[in-house]
Amino acid sequence: MDNKKKAALLKENYKQWKQDALNNKGFFVIFNGFLEEGKLRSISGGALKLYIFLGIRSNNLTGESFYTVKQIAQYFLTSERTVSNWIRELEKMNLILRLQLKYNGVTHTFLNPYKTSQNRKSNR
Fold first, then answer.
1. Nearest-5° Cα angle at 53, 68 to 98
2. Which of 26, 76, 25 is nearest to 47 (CA)?
3. Residue extents of the structural domains in the chain
């Protein structure tokens, strides 16, 4: 198979994979603004992993999730202190906000909106 046919197959596979995921699976979108605002350049790898985890695990309509620092640390096989540092970084970048809605209640993590993008330019 020549490279043009391989490229066409790769494009079709990606198109089908993405369409299936959008129609039938959960998903988390990271808009182009994440790149354009410099968030991608300045975020640490650990905080980015946590942001993606929270995005995938959050309610698609509200951006809300309910994970403790301990649960997150267990998932990532790291210390609670490390997770707390990642959370502080995400809060400082205004990507998340964590709130307790009741005294001694669970902590709710909310994903904050950020600028989505300038008008999209074609890659063609």
1. 45
2. 76
3. 44-114
* pLDDT tens, position by position, 62-96: 999 999 999 999 999 999 999 999 999 999 999 99
Read off the pLDDT of residues 8-27 as tens digits, 9 standing for 90 and up: 999 999 999 888 888 887 78
How far is residue 28's CA from residue 48's CA, in Å, rounded to a whole number?
13
Is domain 44-114 given the CATH code 3.40.50.1110 in the classification?
Answer: no
Written as one letter, the residue type at 87 is I
Q: Which amino acid is at 68?
A: T
Q: Which residues, at least 6 apart from 106, have a Cβ–Cβ distance to it below 8 Å?
A: 66, 68, 100
CB–CB of 75/53 below 8 Å? yes
Mean pLDDT of the chain: 90
DSSP readout, the chain?
--HHHHHHHHHHHHHHHHHHHHHHS------THHHHTTHHHHS-HHHHHHHHHHHHHS-TTT-EE---HHHHHHHHTS-HHHHHHHHHHHHHTTSEEEEESSTT-PEEEEEPP----SPPPP--
